[in-house]
Amino acid sequence: MMDNKQQEQDEPLIHDFNQKNNSPLLSLGLIAFLIIVIGLGIGTGYFLSKHNIVPGGISMKGINLTNNNKIVGSNDLKTFNDTAEGVLKNGGIDGEGEYHLVRPGGNSQNVYLTSSIVDMSQFVGKKIKVWGQTQKAQHAGWLMDVGRVEILN
């Protein structure tokens, strides 16, 4: 009869990691887990797209300028605390901004705009007020990420 100390000494100190100890049940479990995770990812994306939810939890549902919506976008005025007014035109400056607000005082007073929350193309040619967050710029005098828009006329 061999005691426990003798058994421990007989086991090799270094083990071969190339030995295959994977059971088919473990492999099937891993495959099932991956299928469930992928399915949940696809389901979540489908749900969010059908309910018109954009990143940041802001719903764009119901934004239709023909229904006389005057204010569009986020109500988070702590984040979007800078404001500007003017007529929205297409085009940025040297790759900064997609649109710009034309304000009294000439080109030096333009505010260059970008937005990941509001579809600014709906407001081109309109006089608007924007709430946003000022961004660092290389070429634009004022570059703003817009979070909220109000139609003034």
Task: Please outline the helices and strands.
Layout: H1 4-10, H2 24-50, E1 53-54, E2 58-59, E3 71-73, E4 82-90, E5 99-102, E6 111-114, E7 127-135, E8 143-151
Parallel strand pairs: 6-8
Antiparallel strand pairs: 1-2, 3-8, 4-5, 4-7, 5-6, 7-8
Task: Output the keywords.
153 residues; 8 strands; 2 domains; two-stranded antiparallel ribbon; OB fold (Dihydrolipoamide Acetyltransferase, E2P); alpha+beta; 22% helix; elongated; 5-stranded mixed beta barrel
Tell me briefly what this model is:
The protein is of the alpha+beta class.
Can you walk through the features of this model?
The structure is a single chain. The chain is α+β, with helices and mostly antiparallel strands. The protein folds into 2 domains: 23-54; 62-151, OB fold (Dihydrolipoamide Acetyltransferase, E2P) (Beta Barrel). The chain is 22% helix and 27% strand. Strands 4-5-6-8-7 form a 5-stranded mixed β-barrel. It has a two-stranded antiparallel ribbon with strand order 1-2. A hairpin with a 7-residue loop joins strand 7 (127-135) and strand 8 (143-151). The longest helix is centred in the N-terminal third of the chain and has 27 residues, at 24-50. It is elongated, with a radius of gyration of 29 Å. It starts with a helix and ends with a strand. The model is unreliable at 57-67 (pLDDT under 50).
